[in-house]
Amino acid sequence: ADTVKIGVYEPASGDNGAGGKQETLGIQYANSETPTVEIDGKEYNVELDIVDNESSTDKGPSAASTLVSDGVSIVLGSYGSGVSIAASDIFKDGGVPALGITCTNPQVTQGNTHYFRICFLDPFQGTVLANFAKDKFEAKKAYVLTKLGDDYSAGLGHYFTKAFEDLGGEVVEETFPDGNSDFTSYITSAKNAGADVFFAPTSTEAAALIIEQAAAQGLDLPLLAGDTWDSNVILKAAEGKDVQVYVTTFYQEGGNEDFDNGMKEFINSDSKNLANNGGDDTIAAVSAMGYDAYYVALEALKAAGSTDPAKVNEALWDVTYEGVCGKVQFDSENGDAQRDTAYVKTANTETGAWDFVGEQGVE
Amino acid sequence: MEWFNQNLPYFLAGISVGGQYALIAIGYTMVYGILRLINFAHGDIFMVAGLIMVYLSASLPIYISIPIMIVATVIIGFLIERVAYKPLRQAPRMSIMISAIGVSYLLQNLALYITGGLAQQYPAIPWISDTIEIFGSVTKRVTVITPILTIVLVFALVFLIKKTKIGMAMRAASKDFETSQLMGIKINSVISMTFIIGSFLAAVASLLYFSNYTGVVPTSGAMPGLKAFVAAVFGGIGSIPGAVIGAFIIGICENIIKGMGMTTFSDAFTFALLIVILIAKPTGLFGEKVTDKV
Amino acid sequence: MSNVLEVKGLCVSYGGIQAVKDISFVVPKGEVVTLIGANGAGKSSTLRSIVGLVKPTLGSVLLNGKEIAGKTPESIVSQGITLVPEGRRVFADLTVLENLKVGAYLRKDSLDEDIRWCYDLFPRLKERSWQLAGTLSGGEQQMLAIARALMSRPDVIMMDEPSLGLAPIVVRGVFDIIREINRQGKTILLVEQNANMALNAAHHGYVMETGRITLSGTGKELSENDSVKAAYLGKARK
Amino acid sequence: MTKKKETIINVALIAGLLVILYIMEQLMNPTDMIFTVLKKGAIYALVAVSMNLLNGFTGLFSLGQAGFMLLGAYTYGILTIPSEQRESVYQYFDGGIVQFAVPVAIGILAAGVVAAIFAYLIGLPVLRLKSDYLAIATLGFAEIIRAVFQWDKLGPLTNGSNLLRSYPTFKSVLFPFIVSGICIAVIVMMINSTYGRAFKAIRDDEIAAEAMGINLAHHKRIAFTVSSFFAGISGALLAMYQTTIQASMFKSAMTYEILLIVVIGGIGSVTGSCISSFLFITCSEWILRFLDNDTYIGDFHVPLLRSGFRKVVFSIIIMIIVLFFRQGIMGTKEFSVAGIRNFFVRKSNKEKGRKLQ
Amino acid sequence: MSEHVLKVENATMQFGGVVAVDNMNIVVDKGEIVSLIGPNGAGKTTAFNVITGVYAPTNGAVYFNGKKIIENHPQGKMKKLYQGQNAGKYTHVLAPTPDKITQLGIARTFQNIRLFKSQTVFENILIAKHLRRTSNLFTATFHLNGKEEQKMREDATHLLEIVGLKDERNEMATSLPYGKQRRLEIARALATNPSLLLLDEPAAGMNPQETDELTAFIGEIRDNFGLTIFMIEHHMDLVMEISDRIYVLDFGKPIAEGVPEEIQNNQRVIDAYLGGAADE
Ligand SMILES: Nc1ncnc2c1ncn2[C@@H]1O[C@H](COP(=O)(O)OP(=O)(O)OP(=O)(O)O)[C@@H](O)[C@H]1O
Ligand SMILES: Nc1ncnc2c1ncn2[C@@H]1O[C@H](COP(=O)(O)OP(=O)(O)OP(=O)(O)O)[C@@H](O)[C@H]1O
Ligand SMILES: [Mg+2]
Ligand SMILES: [Mg+2]
């Protein structure tokens, strides 16, 4: 049979390597579940073309070029907004549509016709988190720590700040530079500032350090974060420590039994998958999103009736799909999925698993 | 008192991180002193030491892992010198430095390959990882141990270099290999010795550092390495007390800057301070003046 | 009579250039032997290859009957031979005293006596005991280099142009010292541009030209040889 | 061969190269990876040559290249983003303070000029430093510049730590080739002028150079400023190539990469730097990529191959080059028609000689 | 006063506690060959370094063709250390860098040869022509200075012929034998069009035969280039043969000055420097 190529533009190394790998796992699982697609009456084998964008806006474009040059019909990814924005023009020039999975920064899809996405956006997520901080903790003052030069981090921090201030709260903002692993000063500053919540939309790597050091310094504020923190890295870091961690996310394990079981089996079937998932079979929300994204791509291919990227791009606008993380339907302006709720979870430091807190929307 | 309580943690963090920088910086300074080589791979040796510990402690008890980790790190440092620097003894300085950059790349990429790029959780070392309270600030015990251990090690080293025969051989070799050989000094052993000491200190530093900042990633060595290197230059490269003082100054300033809320500039400030010092004193605080006799 | 040093068929080349081409000579015990020749004749290369700083491409070097060619400088030096290198090469960042101590690196006994002896030979060094060697004047550095070599108590001392850049009075002093240490039983292999004095001080001499030995004889014979006079002794002796 | 003749041949060769590139672009798929590599290679060639001018020809060990590229890239980006795009690019800063856009050519030139001005100012204090101290000071400046450009307060100008994008870029591979080509030609001409000789004298022996009446401070500053000018231009080109820029990508690792290129090509060889940048980019970004993928030959799972292996292999290649080809690809020699001719003539002479014997 | 090409006035140079040059006064007149001799470490090279701007003197002044080119006064810590009798005489600081001195017409060679290692013999000389250029960075880069470049090359070629290195033109400077390297250093200094040439031990490392050749050579260039030569040397044959006058330095101070015969028979000089019987 003929093959159709789907590009996977994800980080396997760098700051976002851990998250990128989990997202890729979801895609791979979906691919193993449904390895073929029927396009225009013909059966095609779906081949995943996976490249590593190294979490870097500098190396990303070359990786993107590789995909375009390889002749993929559609690209999935990336985890991390900065790399997605950086590759946007490469995909545009190559005429290849791209489907963002968990890149939540608005700029990814803004003003271009080839980048779509299936997740909610940071203005939404930031507001959700601000509301949550207000509702749950009656927070008046928030300490916001973002990473310098990270679009995801800066974006989410920005929208959170805006929303929180609109709600009448006060915000202390700080940034940490690349390569920083000493967070004790930031934690001290948060304490000294008298903040009620500590909001840190960062990569999981920084997150683990923050949790560890917050615990060591006896910080008794709730730690809040966005979707990136929904990872077993966080669970492990928090396990057995005296910390409270809350995250907003796309998916809650248990949301879809079939998917959960299949995914776990897939992870456990291969030691490499297990390692890529961080050593256990906790399902990350990004994996679920990756899974959905793969099926959205298949829908688009079917709708286009062709493997021609231009046609796929055209078809994407009208694709709808009911996935494990909810319904995907793109708005006609930017190609963003329309979503209005996020899940909130908290890390259970005893069991080392996520506890469901609730769904939170925006009033 | 309020002020004191609020700012003590910054100082504690500064002193502790300064001590760790100091241990790494000595490695730079010693190698530079003898080979005139900025050993870019030094920070990565530090990172590798961290990874070794992670993997060892997964299957062995801590008290066995620690000595094995130190020995393994020392062997790696030794081998790197033999394989990547020794063949270039006669080559221009730039080549050795590039070789060092190459080794640094290789170590990072190997670490990336082996760990799959995922952060590895450093094991908690009993006693030194415990949380203690100092004047009301909560911190890990390692914070206090670091500066003390650093100072002890430094005194030992200074004695070694100033007062012992091998120390004199090191200083002689640092200026002129050929003539040192004529004096019967075994250049290769002296250089190996330097790398062994440097790697040993890097291993100790990694133990202290990662007990505090527990995630080990392939690039973990880059920033502490760079800072330590700056510290070495700051104090006058080649001078061990200089490196140590430089490291403490940088560690403390960095945390004060963060405490002041100028976090964007915490790294930049380190460099700015360095440049100011260099402009005032082109060979660092305690640097030997180059005697360029015409 | 025993030869302390025997060089047979020695060849040295740098890359493509052959600097020393199959030379043989002997240094008898207790004698002063000199090598003279124009710039670039290969004198320094000969000395450097004997002591192992460059590896000879061919040939053998026997020190007290033992083969040393191809060994490392450290091991050669430890067998009782040393070289005062061309251009002084003192350790610039060590003090004068430390330089002397490094000179005795291989020794384990007390150095006080030897240091005193060196200071007697070169009083100037005593004054400068704590100065960094790099800031000494050229001549002072030369003295230090000789003294440093003496510190290892070698049987054979090779000197590469020890009089280079020295004041006349010191040159004479250096030659006096050469004679003096020779009298004390040391064997000396001397390379000199100052052919007059070298031949005067030497028991034996060899003349090198473009990598080969072209003439040999006792010091006296050579200094009276017409071609040597014409080529190396200059107007004063013509 | 006379000098004139050689110049003509060189010009002809370059023209030929451009024509070939043009034809390739017409015949092949323009998104082919080879063009990506060629574009980036051309840009890196320029920055490598500019670094070589400092480190190789003037003996100034500077590690500030990434900083000057950053200046160039930002200058270009800030000046050329079309006004109507600014609102979305500077979304956190109300559209930023620059509200006009200049033509591409002026943007590129400004990139060089801004980098040069900064270099001049930085050079005043730091060029007094020697070797490694200079290296670390320039490295430090690059890091400071990077931090300043990420600073929130400068956001209206620099967009803080966020991406700059939507400025004009190039499509054809000819563009970076022509711009880099012109710049490199200028650098080569300078190296061959009396100033170039002065630079080399400074590299060989500062004290002697000064005794020959060469004003060290002045000449070092010239070399530093000129080198940074071209680094700035290459920064602008890189910005165009990447379509987005962000201060965080101009890290010291980038400088080390360029330094590696320079050394692999041969310190003091312009053609060496050019050749090695293309090789370097090809290896690091293209042909080794297959090493990152799990590969099955039939049912056989090729061992070792998985994500990250490419970089391991690449660093081993670098180590091999560094250890076994110490002079780099070209040493201090230049690739030239005359050189090749001489090489063959000498070879055949040798053969003749052998026959005669 | 203006008849002296070079005048060193009360120059003192201290390094920490070491007084390398101590209140030195020297004059050199036009067309002379003057030698500076003295024991090792007497401060001869240091004196050269002061004259050529490598070191700023602790105290004193240097005049070139009657114009003050260097002046300094004891300052700060030095003032306390400095014991000289003219401590207060100089009030300004005038400390040009070596290139400015060369620009004025004083060229030098070095005790330890300092050629440009990676350059050919010809390029070594060409570099020294750089300081007399009239082109700027722009015109030089775009080769708009063809005539000047041509002239530089002709001059350099001419110099090579004069010093007898024509055949070695394209060899690497460091591959030359020692004696020729010394000649090349002199040729390079000449290429800066000096009127005063300072030679620091030009005959070091040469055998007597080569020294004789050098003696003749120095005389020739003095005549051909209308030079004034100030020279440090330890080879007495050379010094006595070509010097018009000789200064003898000891512990940084001139202890004698005069024509060769006077110096040769001066008991202080014999004791401090020449030693015993002057022949041997
Ligand atoms: N490291 C080297 N690399 C290449 N060639 C060299 C090297 N050292 C010496 N030579 C060459 O070998 C030859 C002999 O040099 P050598 O130094 O032995 O001569 P020499 O007799 O000691 O001369 P001098 O009196 O000048 O010291 C010369 O042609 C020299 O150029
Ligand atoms: N840069 C310096 N720092 C400290 N001391 C110095 C420096 N330069 C020279 N000296 C000292 O000054 C004194 C004079 O040195 P100088 O080189 O002028 O001697 P010289 O007369 O040229 O001797 P020689 O004939 O041996 O070359 C020496 O004692 C030397 O140690
Ligand atoms: Mg010699
Ligand atoms: Mg001198």
TrEMBL record, chain B:
<keyword id="KW-1133">Transmembrane helix</keyword>
<protein>
    <submittedName>
        <fullName>Branched-chain amino acid ABC transporter permease</fullName>
    </submittedName>
</protein>
<feature type="transmembrane region" description="Helical">
    <location>
        <begin position="260"/>
        <end position="280"/>
    </location>
</feature>
<dbReference type="InterPro" id="IPR001851">
    <property type="entry name" value="ABC_transp_permease"/>
</dbReference>
<comment type="similarity">
    <text>Belongs to the binding-protein-dependent transport system permease family. LivHM subfamily.</text>
</comment>
<keyword id="KW-0472">Membrane</keyword>
<dbReference type="InterPro" id="IPR052157">
    <property type="entry name" value="BCAA_transport_permease"/>
</dbReference>
<keyword id="KW-1003">Cell membrane</keyword>
<feature type="transmembrane region" description="Helical">
    <location>
        <begin position="230"/>
        <end position="253"/>
    </location>
</feature>
<feature type="transmembrane region" description="Helical">
    <location>
        <begin position="96"/>
        <end position="122"/>
    </location>
</feature>
<keyword id="KW-0997">Cell inner membrane</keyword>
<feature type="transmembrane region" description="Helical">
    <location>
        <begin position="62"/>
        <end position="84"/>
    </location>
</feature>
UniProtKB/TrEMBL annotation, chain C:
<feature type="domain" description="ABC transporter">
    <location>
        <begin position="5"/>
        <end position="235"/>
    </location>
</feature>
<keyword id="KW-0029">Amino-acid transport</keyword>
<dbReference type="InterPro" id="IPR030660">
    <property type="entry name" value="ABC_branched_ATPase_LivF/BraG"/>
</dbReference>
<keyword id="KW-0813">Transport</keyword>
<dbReference type="InterPro" id="IPR003593">
    <property type="entry name" value="AAA+_ATPase"/>
</dbReference>
<protein>
    <submittedName>
        <fullName>ABC transporter ATP-binding protein</fullName>
    </submittedName>
</protein>
<dbReference type="GO" id="GO:0005524">
    <property type="term" value="F:ATP binding"/>
</dbReference>
<keyword id="KW-0067">ATP-binding</keyword>
<dbReference type="InterPro" id="IPR017871">
    <property type="entry name" value="ABC_transporter-like_CS"/>
</dbReference>
<dbReference type="Pfam" id="PF00005">
    <property type="entry name" value="ABC_tran"/>
</dbReference>
<dbReference type="InterPro" id="IPR027417">
    <property type="entry name" value="P-loop_NTPase"/>
</dbReference>
<keyword id="KW-0547">Nucleotide-binding</keyword>
UniProtKB/TrEMBL annotation, chain D:
<feature type="transmembrane region" description="Helical">
    <location>
        <begin position="308"/>
        <end position="325"/>
    </location>
</feature>
<feature type="transmembrane region" description="Helical">
    <location>
        <begin position="222"/>
        <end position="241"/>
    </location>
</feature>
<dbReference type="InterPro" id="IPR001851">
    <property type="entry name" value="ABC_transp_permease"/>
</dbReference>
<keyword id="KW-1133">Transmembrane helix</keyword>
<feature type="transmembrane region" description="Helical">
    <location>
        <begin position="60"/>
        <end position="79"/>
    </location>
</feature>
<feature type="transmembrane region" description="Helical">
    <location>
        <begin position="172"/>
        <end position="191"/>
    </location>
</feature>
<keyword id="KW-0472">Membrane</keyword>
<feature type="transmembrane region" description="Helical">
    <location>
        <begin position="253"/>
        <end position="281"/>
    </location>
</feature>
<protein>
    <submittedName>
        <fullName>Branched-chain amino acid ABC transporter permease</fullName>
    </submittedName>
</protein>
<feature type="transmembrane region" description="Helical">
    <location>
        <begin position="100"/>
        <end position="121"/>
    </location>
</feature>
<feature type="transmembrane region" description="Helical">
    <location>
        <begin position="7"/>
        <end position="24"/>
    </location>
</feature>
<keyword id="KW-0812">Transmembrane</keyword>
From TrEMBL, chain E:
<dbReference type="Pfam" id="PF00005">
    <property type="entry name" value="ABC_tran"/>
</dbReference>
<keyword id="KW-0813">Transport</keyword>
<dbReference type="InterPro" id="IPR032823">
    <property type="entry name" value="BCA_ABC_TP_C"/>
</dbReference>
<keyword id="KW-0067">ATP-binding</keyword>
<dbReference type="InterPro" id="IPR003439">
    <property type="entry name" value="ABC_transporter-like_ATP-bd"/>
</dbReference>
<dbReference type="InterPro" id="IPR051120">
    <property type="entry name" value="ABC_AA/LPS_Transport"/>
</dbReference>
<dbReference type="InterPro" id="IPR027417">
    <property type="entry name" value="P-loop_NTPase"/>
</dbReference>
<dbReference type="GO" id="GO:0005524">
    <property type="term" value="F:ATP binding"/>
</dbReference>
<protein>
    <submittedName>
        <fullName>ABC transporter ATP-binding protein</fullName>
    </submittedName>
</protein>
<feature type="domain" description="ABC transporter">
    <location>
        <begin position="6"/>
        <end position="276"/>
    </location>
</feature>
<dbReference type="Pfam" id="PF12399">
    <property type="entry name" value="BCA_ABC_TP_C"/>
</dbReference>
<dbReference type="InterPro" id="IPR003593">
    <property type="entry name" value="AAA+_ATPase"/>
</dbReference>
